[in-house]
Write a structure and sequence with these properties.
With 90 residues, the chain is α+β, with helices and mostly antiparallel strands. The protein contains 2 helices and 5 strands.
């Protein structure tokens, strides 16, 4: 089981998601808690400037970016539309 830490940018961006995506995100966070590489999450390791970060899919167009703090904890960094979310990671 993974502990989940919610970053400030994640909480702020999650409030801006469409309601349907917010509901689905809540369900997927349960899966993330159990297994961050569950097949329904479509977890991907990021590369380039985003080495050390991972993303998982809420829906076809929506992503969550997170990173491992340690082997038992993940930090959710930001959530948003895939067309611009990767530019917002700091």
């Amino acid at each position: 089981m993974m502990d989940i830490v919610y970053g400030k940018a994640f909480l702020k961006s999650a409030k801006k998601l469409p309601v349907q995506q917010q509901r689905k995100l809540a369900d997927l966070l349960e899966l993330l808690h159990k297994n961050p590489f569950h097949s329904l999450l479509h977890t991907k390791q990021l590369s380039g400037e985003l080495v050390g970060f991972y993303s998982f899919r809420i829906a076809r167009e929506w992503r969550v970016i997170f990173q491992f703090v340690n082997i038992y904890k993940v930090k959710l960094v930001i959530v948003g539309h895939r067309k611009d979310i990767y530019r917002k990671v700091k």
